[in-house]
Write a structure and sequence with these properties.
- The protein is mainly α and 435 residues long.
- It has 18 helices and 4 strands.
- It has a 4-stranded mixed sheet.
- The longest helix is centred in the middle third of the chain and has 35 residues.
- It is globular, with a radius of gyration of 24 Å.
């Protein structure tokens, strides 16, 4: 909990400075987090008893139990690090949607718990123990309550199908069982091509494991829709939600216009320098190395279009495309919160480079009404970039350029950031912190 209280005091003060019309949620309430930690630990003890009754093999039980102990420890750390939020309106909406699904489907357990993560991405997770993690960012990317219900139905399906525990048991069988150990022993006895044979075994196991993951996602879609269709929510929103997921990528699709740099960083006492936008020359780089592992084969989730075709083949009524429903006023309020919370969330998770990129995306929008908000956050992020550059730890907070994985606008952004000198960063920090 390094310097937790001083951090909280600083963070609360930072919020007061950074906000004009928006007050961030849940800044530093340690009491709530500690009470949530105790509740989670109590539920974990109950779940461990149920787990022992379910898994009779002592070795398998020990393996799964140890995995959950690690998950529980990490989860509790994140609770105290301000990685989860406890906001009445958001929690009420998630719980209400989940309860609607539960009420329509008697086979669903009643004591499910949803934790709202500060993660700005579109995602949710079933932990397999009656607990679920729901990213706040999902409200930013989805368009209405019905689409939130789609995601919750999918995750509840994972629970009903016991996918998390079964996946752990599959991993045990694949990598730690006597059968797996015997295969490694056989390889060790061979005199030729030991490394090649060992890698081949690993690759086959990896492909098999990921193929199972893709299969269970399709299963969760099918059961998820079966749960969803019994509720009041519009059936068409199931496909609409999947289509939004297909379009989604946290940052990369939203390109930065190259003109934004001169607009934002041409400061009174530190004029913009064109050399900041000079690109590293990759023409002499040769990307001819071909991975020994096929990336498509190790993809955990199937492509969204395959998921859509799969669910439409089972439920033909989903082939008819219908216009999205209008979001409620309450949903729009939460959607706005999810948008504005991206900045404090990225600050808390120390994703300073991503924070700056999103600030620039917002500032280049002529219709943005909260420009002062994003300008203040630029100051806070650049202060951290300055400290990390000074301490030679910038790699922890800013990506390196990878032409094969990043789009052009993001590469230009990274070139700009890495081209800044320590003095340049200090000027930017001072200007936007004092503005």
């Amino acid at each position: 909990m390094k310097k937790y209280f001083s951090f909280c005091l600083f963070f609360s003060a930072l919020f007061i400075m950074a906000q004009e019309n928006y007050n961030p949620i849940d800044t530093a309430n340690r009491t709530i987090r500690e009470s949530q930690k105790i509740m989670y630990e109590n539920r974990a003890k109950v779940f461990q008893t149920l787990l022992k009754e379910k898994i009779k093999d002592s070795k398998k039980y020990s393996y799964v139990k140890d995995n959950y102990n690690e998950v529980n420890e990490e989860f509790n750390k994140d609770l105290l690090k301000n990685r989860y939020i406890f906001n009445d309106s958001i929690q009420k909406m998630v719980n209400s949607i989940a309860q609607t699904i539960i009420d329509a489907n008697p086979q669903i357990p009643k004591n499910l718990n949803f934790y709202i993560s500060r993660d700005i991405g579109l995602n949710a997770y079933c932990m397999g123990n009656g607990n679920f993690i729901f990213n706040l960012g999902t409200f930013y990317y989805m368009d209405n309550e019905d689409q939130i219900a789609v995601i919750i139905s999918h995750e509840i399906a994972h629970l009903l199908l016991d996918h998390v525990i079964e996946g752990q048991l599959d991993n045990y069988q694949m990598y730690y069982s006597n059968e797996a150990k015997n295969k490694l022993k056989d390889i060790s006895k061979t005199k030729k091509n030991q490394s090649e044979n060992a890698f081949k075994l690993f690759k086959n196991l990896l492909y098999e494991d990921k193929a199972k993951h893709r299969k269970i996602e399709l299963q969760a879609d099918s059961l998820g829709y079966a749960l969803y269709k019994k509720t009041k929510y519009a059936q068409s929103e199931f496909i609409n939600a999947l289509k939004l997921m297909e379009e989604y990528d946290t940052i990369k699709p939203m390109g930065l216009d190259s003109t934004i740099y001169a607009k934002v960083f041409n400061l009174p006492n530190a004029p913009f320098k064109q050399k900041w936008l000079e690109r590293e020359d990759f023409s002499s780089y040769h990307y001819q190395y071909k991975s020994k592992i096929d990336e498509d084969s190790i993809a955990t989730h199937p492509e969204i279009d395959k998921r859509i075709k799969h669910i439409q083949a089972i439920y033909p009524e989903l082939k008819e495309l219908v216009k999205e429903k209008e979001a409620s006023t309450e949903f729009k309020k939460i959607e706005y919160i999810a948008k504005m919370e991206r900045q404090p969330s990225l600050y808390i998770t120390e994703d300073y480079g991503a924070g700056i990129y999103i600030c620039l995306l917002r500032l280049q929008n002529p219709e943005e009404k909260n420009k002062a908000y994003y300008e203040k956050w630029l100051g806070h992020y650049f202060q951290k970039i300055y400290e990390s550059r000074k301490n030679y730890t910038l790699n922890r907070y800013l990506d390196r350029i990878d032409p094969e994985e990043q789009d052009d606008s993001y590469q230009l952004f990274l070139n700009f950031m890495w081209n800044l000198s320590l003095e340049d960063i200090q000027h930017i920090t001072d200007y936007y912190t004092e503005k």
